[in-house]
Amino acid sequence: MPVKNRFAELLPEITEWRRDIHMHPEILFETHRTSALVEEKLKSFGCDEVVGGIGRTGVVGIIKGKSDTKGRVIGLRADMDALPIFEATGLEYASKTEGAMHACGHDGHTAMLLGAAKYLAETRNFDGTVAVIFQPAEEGGGGGKEMCDDGMMDRFGIDEVYGMHNWPGRPVGSFAIRSGAFFAATDTFEVRFKGLGGHAAKPQETIDTTVMAAHAVTALQTIAARNADPVSQIVVSVTSFETESKAFNVIPETVTMKGTVRTMSPENRDLANKRVPEICEGIAATFGGRAEVDYVRGYPVMVNSEEQTEFAAEVAREVSGECIDAPLVMGGEDFAFMLEERPGAYILVGNGDTAMVHHPEYNFNDEAIPAGCSWWAEIVERRMPAA
Q1: pLDDT at position 16
Q2: H/E stretch holding 199
Q3: Pairing of strands 73-79, 160-167
Q4: Is the CA virtual torsion 58, 301, 257, 86 positive or negative?
Q5: Which pLDDT score, from 0 to 100, does residue 272 have?
Q6: Would you say 76 and 4 are in contact if contact means Cβ atoms under 8 Å apart?
Q7: Confidence at residue 4, expressed as pLDDT on a 0 to 100 scale
Q8: Of 181, 152, 140, 182, which is closest to residue 299 (Cα–Cα)?
Q9: Backbone dihedral angles phi then psi of residue 215, each to the nearest 5 degrees
Q10: pTM for this entry
């Protein structure tokens, strides 16, 4: 079972959709144009139901098979939002919105799922129902959680759910997947060190917040080096360090530090949640100051279900001939919220030799479209074979 011929025929049309979406990137929940385009396409395909406004700007299309003897419903999910990045590709279809860019390939994900929806609505060669899910705000906004909180799974009776992401560096159209924990939980912290500012020539009259924060940057690494099990996965990154004063001769009263914690287990997540405040508050007290710590839990660990992962890999191998075991990914993915509510699997499709995602020169590879569309369509037709 290679790539479906229909998607080779549809490739120019799907590519046109993708590039149009690429030219008009929208951030977080502000996917108004994209959502409207998705709704219009789904209605034109003849979907049995199209519902917008789920999770603020999410869209769900319902496609019923030729029969429905078992009442099964499969969800297929794509993300729609872009990133706040200035595009540097120089493409003729580059972003027309300054400071926004589809630098993660969500334009490709949306176009591929639209292509699969068009095919499934044409053929309906399955026994059951498909819910095609178009989600906003994957890039830090938790749009997947918002759609779940709106009751999407129960409303449409979804039994299991599948997602896909492109992956630069892998051969175009090849696949990779892993069962169990796959993408990391992603939490953030902001620490405000408070002391006593003053003249840099008289440090003895100050409580130096820069010294506090500098010690904290190093000490936070002991969470991974000395608190967590050495064979487990945990990454603590301080990504922002800002002093209240920008002068050469002023010791600042306040320093603000920000960062992220990425973990693959609930135990390490709880550990970091406990140790980040303890370390920062303890260091501040040592130097006579204080620390105010805001620790925010973000996306949970994304966990692929074993049965659905084996099935997804089997379909991928038949579509492209290759589906390798994927490595653990310390990035976050809010498809995790959907997998907390329903069993399912998330797969990576090769994007070829392109810039990595979140880079200003990244571009989704349109040659991956037929393989991605075929995988989604085959998930439906093989999981719910026509009666």
Answers
A1: 98
A2: strand 198-199
A3: parallel
A4: negative
A5: 98
A6: no
A7: 76
A8: 140
A9: -65, -40
A10: 0.94
